[in-house]
Amino acid sequence: MPTISMFYGILIRMFYRDIEKHRLPHIHAEYQGKSAVYSILDGAVLAGELPPNKHKLVVAWIEIHQENLQADWVLAVNGSIPFTIKGLDQ
Fold first, then answer.
1. DSSP the chain
2. What's the pLDDT at 22?
3. In terms of residue numbers, what domain contains 38?
4. Fewer Cβ within 10 Å of end Cβ, the chain: N or C?
5. How many CB atoms lie under 10 A from the CB of residue 21?
6. Which letter, b or e, does each residue of 30-57 get, where b requires 16 or more Cβ atoms within 10 Å of its Cβ?
7. CA nearest 29: which of 58, 69, 57, 53?
8. What does the angle CA 54 – CA 48 – CA 3 come to, to the nearest 5 degrees?
9. How far apart are CA 11 and CA 29, in angstroms?
10. Residue 69 pLDDT
């Protein structure tokens, strides 16, 4: 599972061919042992949770980079390596 971004201690990852469980374009966010799955389409939490302040950062990041995330999703579900995306702290 490639890490596509990292900011403020949050790791953002995207699995290869990951369409079975959530069936929506999504990312996996991890922070200090906690994890959540977010929809790329609207930033909704599909599973898990992050601390509220980190959750807000992830949702803002998704909104800013939605087009890049959708392009990365197409790559990842087809087994290709997604591109890295700048974090909020860069």
1. --EEEEETTEEEE--TT--SSS-S-EEEEEETTEEEEEETTT--EEEE---HHHHHHHHHHHHHTHHHHHHHHHHHHTTPPPPP---TT-
2. 57
3. 3-77
4. C
5. 11
6. bbeeeebbbebeebebeeeebeeebbeb
7. 58
8. 65
9. 6
10. 97
Report whether 10 contacts 30 (CB < 8 A): yes
Q: What is the rounded distance in angstroms from the CA atom of residue 15 to the CA atom of residue 80?
A: 10
Q: How many domains does the chain have?
A: 1
Q: pLDDT of 26-84, one tens digit each?
A: 999 999 999 999 999 999 999 999 999 999 999 999 999 999 999 999 999 888 999 99
Alpha-carbon radius of gyration of the chain: 12
Q: What are 63's two structure tokens?
A: 């909104």
User: Exposed/middle/buried for 87, CB within 10 Å: 0-12, 13-18, 19+?
Assistant: middle
Predicted TM-score (pTM) of this structure = 0.90
Residue 60 lies in a domain: yes
